[in-house]
Design goal:
alpha/beta, 6-stranded mixed β-sheet, 4-stranded antiparallel β-sheet
Amino acid sequence: MDVPFTDTTYILGANASGKSNFLDVFRFLRDICKTEGGGLQKAIGQRKGLSKLRCLHARTDPEVEIEVSLEDTDGEKWRYVLAFKSEGKGAQRVLISREEVWQKKTPLLRRPDSDDKMDVARLTQTHLEQIQTNQQFRHIGEFFSAISYLHLVPQLLKFSDEIGGRRLEDDPFGQGFLERIAKSSPRVRDSRLKKIRDVLIKAVPQFKDLEFEKDEVTGRPHLKALYQHHRPHGAWQREDQFSDGTLRLIGLLWSLFEGDSLLLIEEPELSLNSAIVKEIPLMIHQVRKSTRRRRQVLITTHSDSLLSNLGIDTNGALIIEPCKNGSTIRGPSVREKQSIEDGFSIAEIILPVTNPRLADQLALAL
């Protein structure tokens, strides 16, 4: 796969075509570069080994390769390349077969180098994860380590006390979402919640206000919402009484405000009314405009409502298509672009391409 990204990129595809795997490329780079407990070997181990990272259809070539082109805020162009594969003997260690950093056309790092050949164990670690070797390109590692991902599962947040137990590292499903809100400064938190409240007033019936508080006994953070009520002053509810859609929308909006790193979003349409889903592209645009941050967003979706928004940049759509040897990824064809320019939506032109070929026969199989 070799694809460009826009400010907001929508990744479309059928179930099990590879959308989540595609986002995991960037989570993998983040896990390598985390300042606490990161590294190549841990990132591979978290995914149960190299055999789970390789394409299901891979045959003879065991190498996995990632290449990312970047542009910093000064317009400087960078390129990072990482390839690795199994040692093929002995302990079957996963070793780096290539690691490169380029600034424009100038190579700052090319591995394996002579030191690596003298000591092969060095190839179990990237230079990107080591502060003693990454000084010239440390900001690339800092960019990767700041990548954020949130696929908030409302039930994990509502019943976190009852569920208890171990929380996944980086909390991708939002079980510790309230703690993330609590860590922000009061000024920043109040400003963001005020903007989120203004959206919820328009999206949620009888909604009036949104506040943050800490339990006086346990110290646990909570969100509470005020709803219009037969009583003059309304009625307050905590987050465990919010609807799934309300929690999902709060999580989405907070994530958009939270930082300027790459943001990965999976299926933001879940639990939300289709009229709200249709406005997600505009909400992303407005948040980016109001915060003056050029935060890139990658979104996986197969929502007809979301993709019916005519304001989506056609160049920001990527289609993953399963085939005999795995999946391929492409942008819209010339013909598809022309149809969209003529007034059709991405939902009308491209989404049908991602439908399972025999979907209309599902009921016949029962």
